[in-house]
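Handout, tutorial session.
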Amino acid sequence: MEDFVGALNDIVWSNALIFLCLGIGFYFSIRTRFLQLRHIKEMVRLLFDGESTDSGVSSFQALAMSLAGRVGTGNIAGVATAIAFGGPGAMFWMWTVAFLGASTAYVEATLAQIYKEKHLGEFRGGPAFYIERGLGMKWFGILFAVVSVISAGIFLPGVQANSVAEGIKNAFHIETWISGLGMVLLFGAIVFGGVKRIAKFTEYVVPFMAIGYIILALIIIVVNISQLGDVITLILKSAFNMQAGFGAVFGLAIQWGVKRGVYSNEAGQGTAPHIAAAANVSHPAKQGLVQSFSVYIDTLFVCSATGFMILITGMYNVQNPGFGTNGASEFLYHGLNNVAIGPAYTQNAMDTVFPGFGSYFVAIALFFFAFTTVIAYYYIAETNISYLTRKVESPKFYYILKVLMMFVIMYGSINQATLAWAMGDLGVGLMAWFNIIAIILLQKPALKALLDYEKQKKEGKDPVFIPENIGVTNAHIWNTIYKHKED
């Protein structure tokens, strides 16, 4: 099974996708005139714009839900994996993907808002919706929806559950099947309560754990502040093949940095737009800007916290089996030899300053990060099922999904990490391919929406979206929303 999934990954995650993720981010950065720099202040202001209604969630709830999807095991175990296989330079390429990907996140989230629909009284949207409505390619929308249900409902949850179970086992010596059973029960209690319960859960849990995690990481950095300059130099030099001992993994630094960057911040992947569409805002660009900022939170804050902790404490080792046994090889295998690549890297880094407590905290943080990500995956899969069953609109399909994901969570908890990661990478890669092709073909409405938003802001207005003003004719839900606001 691992060989088969690995072979598929070699095709899906070819260099073409690596450079496509970087290239499309650079392209959209230019087309939006680097909105990720120009509108940072506006992004922060918009975090608290909009209110929750019966149909949609507030901007902050949508942010929390999207961060639940972005901030997960990729921020803890994923960063360790990137450093292990790509060297410290992988951190730089993760930052690069985040900076460029912020513009991609804007485009896909804004498109999700423009072409959202209302199903069973709730806003629904995402790539499948804007592919059908914006491009008029229903077959492509169905294909994406099917891939998304399989990826978000089957492939991706196993990665999160596996890392949680391993982290808890490392810290508390609790068997993985026990952790898996606990996650299954908690998952059921939340998702059977509907999208509102999901939004409330993530709204409180995600910010609390992210802030706490970053604070502890900053303490570790301060304790080792004398080494900070050396670590930054190490990252930059190894990112550009200028560091002795890391030349052999230069290409891998880019590959793993981009792969784990996309996996973590999800820019272009097509998962976050599903949640962005659920927000109740007066203009699509508002949620687009909020989603851009969420990429920064994920990678520049949380991933960086993990990376600096691991590197500044020396709790890492870079895997390069074909490198030989000279002095450089000894440098490559610096740090924790014979430690499984994953949460243990971060746990040992925290233990250097917080003996014992560090492992416990990482295990707890990993649980909340990864578990909320599983919740977000459920919502993504549910949204695509909603798309596929619009004419039927029966909740029985959602019940089947809930039961299936409970099984996947249990299976992922007790399975080998290598297979779980491989399946997760495959799911991310497939969704990224389909979504990036779609947003390249359907970029104009999102770019026009940004210009419309900026124009109304200059006029001193709270921007309101009227599709006809930017030449969009197939966004019927906005005509209903605008008429409601007028009334």
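The second record follows below. Compare its token runs with those of the first.
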Amino acid sequence: MKFFLRFWIKKENKNFLGKGRIELLEHIKTTGSISKAAKNMKMSYKAAWDSIDSMNRLSKEHLVESNNGGKGGGGTAITPEGQRLIIAFKRLEKVMVGVESYLDNIVDLDDLEERIQILEKKLEIS
């Protein structure tokens, strides 16, 4: 058997973070632009903006900040809190990959149940 795990984070019963939103934050970080980040992800500017607005509203501190145009033009940046969140999400992804690896190559239901029991003990889940 081969296992594939996905996760996302909800806050106040609303979708807060997932793989796509983290990818959007990373594109904003590299491009300095919501518009360019949206284009890189083949999504509309409005969809990108709505995701950012939702994340900013649900977060204790803003994750993304935009500066209005001017002589040098505007721009968008990831805040230190946004960067911390990207790093934490990536760390959690690595943990999930570890769980996937641990569950890979299970041969039957007995093997699966045994590995689940081991995980439950390690994670103190009853």
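Points raised in discussion: The helical segments are 19-31, 34-40, 45-58, 80-103, 109-123.
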